[in-house]
Amino acid sequence: MTMIEPHEKRKNLELAKDSIDKKIEYINVKMWNIFSWSSSLLIGSIAGAVVLKRENLGVLNRILLCIAVIALAANAFAWLKSTYHILNAARKLLQAVDDELGIYKQIQIIKDDKPLKTFVLYELGAFTSYHLTLVLLAFVSILMILLPII
Asked: Are 124 and 88 in contact (CB under 8 A)?
């Protein structure tokens, strides 16, 4: 069994850290692209509903439009959720590599030898603003589609 020299191990960990950082950046861009694409379509559906208010579409057509909006929002929501889980896994891996390298886990602001505030770098909330915005846009879109018949 070969022993890895400490400097080689550190070099390998730094390469892994760089790779994980790039993956996290890619995932963040991917989440933005998913959100941007779906929110543009939902905003377009709101605008379309405003234009179609002058037309007599009928209840069935309005219900079909609502189903399409729900399907779009649900697909984007699920896609963002799965991508979000991948991002959390990558952040946990980054934390493990940082711990192994001895890079700080937390940043503390010290005043009078007491920490004032602690920032945790690796944890994300369970619900991002992308999700909430998609839900709100879908709700407004459905409301605009159904408003003439309500």
From this structure: yes
Token output for 80? 């963002």
End-to-end alpha carbon distance in the chain: 75
Give dist(CA 34, CA 83) in Å, integer. 10
One-letter identity of residue 60: L
**DSSP, residue by residue, 84-117:** HHHHHHHHHHHHHHHHHHT--SEEEEEETTEEEE
Name the CA dihedral angle for 140, 144, 145, 146, rounded to a multiple of 10 degrees: 100
Q: Considering only 47-51, 60-64, 112-116, which range has the smallest mean pLDDT?
A: 112-116
pTM for the full model? 0.72
pLDDT band at 39; cut points 50, 70, 90: very high
